[in-house]
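Replying to the earlier thread about multi-chain prediction with a worked example.

Input:
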Amino acid sequence: MQRTEISSLGEFALIKRLTRDFPIQHESTRRGVGDDAAVIAYPEGLQTLVTTDLLLEGIHFDLTYTPLRHLGYKAAVGSFSDIYAMNGHPQQLTCSVGVSARFAVEDLEELYAGIRLACGRYGVDLVGGDTSASLTGLCISITCLGAAREEEIVYRSGAQPTDLICVSGNLGAAYMGLQLLEREKRVFAGEKGDFEPDFAEHEYILERQLRPEARQDIILALREKGLRPTSMIDSSDGLASELLHIATESGVGVRIYEERLPIDIETHRMAEELNMSTTTVAMNGGEDFELIFTIPLAELDRLKELDGIHIIGHVTSAGQGCYLVTPDGAELRLRAQGWPDEAEE
Amino acid sequence: MQRTEISSLGEFALIKRLTRDFPIQHESTRRGVGDDAAVIAYPEGLQTLVTTDLLLEGIHFDLTYTPLRHLGYKAAVGSFSDIYAMNGHPQQLTCSVGVSARFAVEDLEELYAGIRLACGRYGVDLVGGDTSASLTGLCISITCLGAAREEEIVYRSGAQPTDLICVSGNLGAAYMGLQLLEREKRVFAGEKGDFEPDFAEHEYILERQLRPEARQDIILALREKGLRPTSMIDSSDGLASELLHIATESGVGVRIYEERLPIDIETHRMAEELNMSTTTVAMNGGEDFELIFTIPLAELDRLKELDGIHIIGHVTSAGQGCYLVTPDGAELRLRAQGWPDEAEE
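Result:
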């Protein structure tokens, strides 16, 4: 593969090259890349949602097994997921990258190809960003702007006792994908000759780790049914941690049921292979980008008409605490183990 | 000084502690820190400006001589400067930090104290951000949102032939401050015993490097006089580079005059001490956060009523190119040397 040194282009030519194939899709994007700031004008009545993420090599991703294109896609999608978790729609994205000398222009083009794919698929405009040198690997900063009508925005703070607690898709798959990749990396490090990583029958969990999707489909389906969650959050830090956020912000308790946790067969199989508890994986595994939300009990019938949504428990009063109930009736207090790599060294 | 390990708090408690003393100042900030995204609602008729910066230790700042409080202040102010350069007003800020194990909670509190000072002084709300581990030093990602009426926004692209080219304040001071700090760092590295860095009579350039201000005052003064620049940019990458941006985006040429470059006496003195050309310093030194803008010739009289603004040249047609004219009439073509640390390794 060709290798063009970043220094041979200079910052401004590089940004121009990286961002040239991003079409502007929204009328609200008045000015994108190329001025001191982007200019955005949402139609009257829409509020602006803004979320930002910082992704660091060696902490949030490992380039040993993460193709740059996938990394770009995932960075963008993770950001969109935060906007969907507010019941909004992502519209604009900025991306800044710091890169050390081991990266070539072609590497950055791969990263941006992934971002472009995500932007195209979710209908988001790239409107800004810059590149700079880094002493130590790759560093990605992503900011996403989204739009929502005031009355549609869903906070973490609106859950009410007796609300149903729902989860989209399934839990723990991305984390199991990560564990598989880490295992194969360790095996690879011990190998001398040719090495073929063993990913057979693990395609689903790998995809969940390496090329996740944000649940735009759930947001659209809820809207179509006229269902508005009372509270919502995305599962980037794991179910337990996210439920505790909802409980704290809403001033309520939660009770969820172990046998109701949606877990894919591949997640089960991988957890077994690694001697891990499937429940722990589902409760604490991060990066699933599923939506966790609460819906008034009165909406149960309409809720049941939706595909891919699982009712895992219900909201209680704050005094009743936050618990996972096992099939034999034991009650385990939820703890925010969270995603083990954040703010912990 | 007390040292609280970041790991002893956990990510969520840390963010809560760092952001607790940031009052919300704007009615437009509907939700700040603490949900999946911040929610912002500007009054009808205002458009949203968004700018993002990524600051990496060892590339954009050196903690040997940069106090964390100053770094926080400067990071925020640099971001505000981009919004002013659009003729807008900064309103909301998000800040994400990656920190390695050598940083304590108290260090981050210093950084945030600087951000808080800047937010207070410029009237900006902190609305989001997160902290994560980093393998290698400090990494700061800043995003600023600003508001402006559509008809007030000034792009890089509006300069017209015969417009006057103006610069606020003076140029090259921040760069000379940096060179002084770098020199004293080298001297310090060679010293064995007690060492007292020699900063006497260099207070101004040090302040320009370590605690710069954004030119909110110029934006307000222009508005008060009813003056709207045809194009504008801030001088974060150096005058030559910024003028070339205006020329390219506006499809014009520029001609500026060496003897008109505003240069402080301390900048002159430091350049002399270091055997550097003062003109080169003024043309290429970055981080001054001054405003560079163009004003129609017909507004000359009103422009002259403003303090602290220097007319350094005029806009020409594109065919006439971009030149610096020396006192003896020689014409030097502008080159975008830029800020030497960006995208060059």
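Chain A has two domains: 4-150, 161-331.

Feel free to reuse this layout for your own posts.
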